[in-house]
Amino acid sequence: MDEANVFLSSIIRTTDERLTRGLTQQRSNATWLRLVSIVGGLIIMGGVGGVILTIYRYTREVAQTRDQVQQLNATLEQRVRDRTADLVDARDKAEVLLAEVNHRIANSLTMVSALVSLQSRNIEDRVAKDALRETQGRIDAIASVHKSLYSSGDARFVDFDDYLSSLLRNVEEAMRNEGHGASIRTDLEALKLKPDTSVNLGVIVIELVTNAFKYAYPDRAGEVRVRLKRLSSTAAELVVEDDGVGRSVDAPAKGSGLGTRIVTAMARTIGAEVEYFPRHPGCGARLAFACPTDLA
Length: 296
Hints:
Blueprint: H1 2-121, H2 126-151, E1 158-159, H3 160-177, E2 183-188, E3 192-193, H4 195-216, E4 223-230, E5 235-242, H5 258-269, E6 274-278, E7 283-290
Parallel strand pairs: 2-4
Antiparallel strand pairs: 1-3, 4-5, 5-7, 6-7
Helix pairs in contact: 1-2, 2-3, 2-4, 3-4, 4-5
């Protein structure tokens, strides 16, 4: 019996020792597992915290940048408004000044025209009187452009068809007062031109129409036709023609020839050339010239 008890006790002690070691190992493993879990949790929390901090910093930087951009935009918009207001004010002042200059020039030229008219009345010589009258017509043509400029809303361009109609009415009245029986018929397309071009074309038309009154119909009534039309987006055409006695294309100019030289010079100034062509009966003159496409 004693030996059996000893054997059983030995087995029990061995089993207890194994269980104790197993429990100790399990406790050790559990401790390590808790440590690993705690460390892993801390690492995860640190990573999440870092991500949250990064997102917060990024969001704050984006908000700050947005605020700065909005502030810059507001400042820039205010500067643009101020600059625009300054430019509008400067433009208005320039337009007022330009209108005043055109008004003064027109008045001065009208005074010169009146003085020429007074002078022609005191001259008996027919040639000198005609020369002064033609000079007066040229001055009136230039003055009419400046009158159109200061009376219009845009000093950069002239309504050339309106200007030409007014000019031709004055020429017709003046020629009839001198005893010429011809009349003027117009076909004018609406056209805006620069002032310099308008002045040159106005003087050219006066010379051509005056010559038609004087030489195409020297002793009878007739018709002088003036046509203005746009040929393309960049060019237009001016034609003056009559049904009078006609002239040879190569024939020398009648009178002093000054009018023909003026027409040639004015045409070259605007980069054009006058083309004379025969009619049956009568003759005509054609002038093609450049015209603006952008009036903005």
